[in-house]
Amino acid sequence: MVQFSLWDIFSFLLGAMRWTVLLSLIAFVGGGLVGLGLLLLRFSQARGVGLAVSWYVQIFQGTPLLMQLFLVYFGLALLGMDTSPMVSAAICLTLYASAYLTEIWRGCVNAVPRGQWEASASLALDYQQQMRHVILPQAMRVAIAPTVGFMVQIVKGTALASVIGFVELTKAGQMISNATYQPFLAYTFVGLLYFALCYPLSWWSQRLENRRLA
Q1: Distance between CA atoms of residues 121 and 94, nearest Å
Q2: pLDDT tens for residues 157-200?
Q3: Which of the chain's ends, N or C, has fewer CB atoms near its CB within 10 Å?
């Protein structure tokens, strides 16, 4: 059994946490951009487009994230693409986040009073102008709190990337556990670091929601 000091264990996990944060940021930013595009398509008048986006959302919401990771990781390999676990995890989590953010933001757009649509239409604004100048600015105020809250789910979702070999916080904890035969100690540190990442986001989300309702 290899002997490690508490500082050795903590510093190794702290280094791995950087990859958890990086993967979370990639998934959130990428998912946000894709989700915004899907949101605009969801409310477009093009026949069948809204239904296709709805099915996209249902597929990602109705299947386990772990299965999605396996499908992306092994599916890209079947297509002849030599991708790393990092790239596969980033693609999968981006698609996963985009589906959930699309649905979150759809609810926020629907929360805008119908009269705002009618008033903007009376000003001869087309669909894109309505969304850009009238609807989205109001929906964004409603969307801030649940969007920040969803970031917590993304951070925790990165833990599943360990199953395809990506060395983030959970995988690093497993490596420490195997090397030291002290799983309780290793995963206690892992849990504390996840809490340090997620609690501020949860607190911020709750504060934003309370401020909106005040």
Answers
A1: 34
A2: 999 999 999 999 999 999 999 988 899 999 999 999 999 999 99
A3: C
Instruction: Indicate whether 1 belongs to any domain.
Output: no
In the predicted model, is pLDDT for residue 24 greater than 80? yes
- How far is the C-alpha of 200 from the C-alpha of 206, rounded, in Å? 10
Average pLDDT rounded to a whole number, residues 59-81: 92
CATH number reported for the structural domain that contains residue 49 in this entry: 1.10.3720.10
Q: How many angstroms separate the CA atoms of 199 and 201, rounded? A: 5
Domain that holds residue 21: 6-213
Say if 128 falls within a structural domain. yes
The answer to whether position 107 is within a domain reads yes
How sure is the predictor about 124, in pLDDT bands with cuts at 50, 70 and 90? confident
Q: What is the mean pLDDT of residues 84-96?
A: 95
Tokens of 213: 């309702």
Q: How many CB atoms lie within 10 A of CB 183?
A: 14
List Cβ<8 Å contacts ≥24 apart for 82-89: 85/161, 85/164, 85/165, 85/166, 86/19, 86/23, 86/166, 88/164, 88/166, 89/23, 89/158, 89/161, 89/164, 89/166
The residue among 32, 47, 39, 147 whose CA lies nearest residue 95 is 32
**Domains contained in the chain, number:** 1
Q: What does the pLDDT read at residue 214?
A: 62
